[in-house]
Automatic annotation (TrEMBL):
Organism: Candidatus Blautia merdavium
Protein name: M15 family metallopeptidase
Domain of life the protein comes from: Bacteria
Pfam families per the UniProt record, alphabetical: VanY
InterPro entries: DD-CPase-like (IPR052179), VanY-like_core_dom (IPR003709), VanY/YodJ_core_dom (IPR058193), Zn_M74/Hedgehog-like (IPR009045)
D-alanyl-D-alanine carboxypeptidase-like core domain: residues covered: 40-162
GO terms of molecular function: peptidase activity
One BP annotation, GO: proteolysis
Signal peptide, first to last residue: none
C-alpha cells in the first residue's frame, strides 16, 4: 500500500522549484474560484479527498475545501504579507505542506468558511477528526503537539499520508515527526 510520510516543516524545507508530479482537482466543494491553484491536490490525495467528502455529504456534513496546493511563490507572498502585519501564523516559503499537494485546509459554513480553531467544535470538525484517518488523512497539527510539529494546533488542516499510516498515527496519537523518529 502506498503511503506518503514526507515531512515538511521549518526544519525540513522544500526547494523553491518543487512541484508535485501530478496535480488534479478533486470534485469537492471549494471556496476558491475555478482555475485557482488552491483547488489542486496531488493526484492520489485528490482521489482520497473525493471519497472523504462524498462520505461527509452522505452524513449531511457541509465540508468545504479552502486551500489545497500552494506554490512556493504564493507561499512566499503570503509569508511576506504576514510579516508586514507582524503575524507568525503563516509558514515560511518551503515550509508549507501545501506545496506538496498532500495538504488540504477544510472549513464549513458554521464558521463562515474561515480557518479558525472554532471549527473543531462544529459537527463538521468533529466528524472530520473522527473520519479523516479512514480515508488516509490526519489532522496534521494536533493540539498539544506544537513543540513537536513546530506549528500551532490547526483542526482544519488535514494531510494525506495513506490509509495504513493515517490509521496507525490516529491509534497511537503520534505526529509524523514522532513516526519518523521510529524509522
Amino acid at each position: 500500500m502506498k503511503y506518503f510520510p514526507l515531512i515538511v516543516n521549518k526544519e525540513r524545507l522544500l526547494s523553491p522549484d518543487y512541484i508535485p508530479d501530478e496535480l488534479a482537482e478533486p470534485a469537492i466543494p471549494f471556496s476558491a474560484p475555478p482555475g485557482d491553484e488552491r483547488r489542486l491536490m496531488e493526484k492520489t490525495a485528490a482521489k482520497a479527498a473525493v471519497r472523504l467528502f462524498t462520505q461527509a455529504a452522505l452524513n449531511q456534513m457541509g465540508l468545504v475545501g479552502v486551500s489545497g496546493y500552494r506554490s512556493y511563490d504564493r507561499q512566499k507572498k503570503l509569508y511576506e504579507d504576514a510579516q508586514k502585519r507582524k503575524s507568525s501564523a503563516v509558514a515560511p516559503p518551503g515550509a508549507s505542506e501545501h506545496q506538496t499537494g498532500l495538504a488540504l485546509d477544510v472549513s464549513c459554513p458554521a464558521v463562515n468558511l474561515e480557518l479558525e480553531e472554532e471549527f473543531e467544535a462544529t459537527k463538521e470538525g468533529k466528524w472530520l477528526a473522527r473520519h479523516a484517518p479512514l480515508y488516509g488523512f490526519i489532522i496534521r497539527y494536533p493540539r498539544n503537539k506544537e513543540k513537536i510539529t513546530g506549528f500551532p494546533y490547526e483542526p482544519w488542516h488535514i494531510r494525506y499520508v495513506g490509509e495504513a499510516l493515517s490509521l496507525y498515527l490516529s491509534l497511537t496519537g503520534m505526529t509524523l515527526e514522532e513516526y519518523h523518529e521510529l524509522e
